[in-house]
């Protein structure tokens, strides 16, 4: 069976990315390892008293993200594709690449919004970073309008 790592960010194009990964997994008789990487600073805020940490904010956000991850996992399973999910906090690129190695991934499937130039200079591109650093083939699906 082919192992596919599918990072998701719950953005407005996540459904398109999941649809493409489902199609790819069906063609290859693949298993999908769904992953979401939350930032480490979810519970931090800057206010009048400087940086403050609110553990309840972080816990609520993680709980909501797990619900979303479970929904996507069930959607994939409904297509008769083996799937499991993972939510971790930290640096997305490093965690995704580490997870892909742990799962002996044959592919990482990611999306590209088709942005370039000045946007990448200021925001960066996770997909670009993964494709530059990965020893595992990365399938980039166009998910722009």
TrEMBL record:
The keyword Phosphoprotein does not apply. Pfam families: Usp (PF00582). It comes from the Bacteria. The keyword Nucleus does not apply. Residues 3-142 form the UspA domain. Gene3D superfamilies: HUPs. SUPFAM superfamilies: Adenine nucleotide alpha hydrolases-like. Keywords: Plasmid. Transmembrane segments: none annotated. Belongs to the universal stress protein A family. PANTHER family: STRESS RESPONSE PROTEIN NHAX, UNIVERSAL STRESS PROTEIN UP12. This is Universal stress protein.
């Amino acid at each position: 069976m082919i192992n596919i790592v599918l990072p998701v960010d719950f953005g407005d194009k996540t459904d398109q990315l999941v649809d493409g990964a489902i199609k790819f997994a069906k063609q290859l008789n693949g298993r999908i390892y769904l992953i979401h990487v939350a930032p480490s600073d979810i519970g931090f805020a800057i206010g009048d008293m400087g940086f403050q940490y609110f553990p309840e904010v972080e816990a609520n956000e993680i709980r909501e993200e797990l619900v979303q991850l479970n929904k996507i996992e069930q959607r994939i399973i409904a297509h008769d594709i083996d799937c499991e999910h993972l939510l971790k906090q930290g640096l997305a690129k490093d965690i995704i690449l580490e997870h892909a190695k742990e799962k002996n991934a044959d592919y990482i499937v990611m999306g590209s919004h088709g942005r370039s130039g000045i946007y990448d200079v200021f925001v960066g591109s996770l997909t670009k970073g993964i494709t530059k650093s990965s020893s595992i083939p990365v399938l980039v699906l166009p998910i722009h309008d």
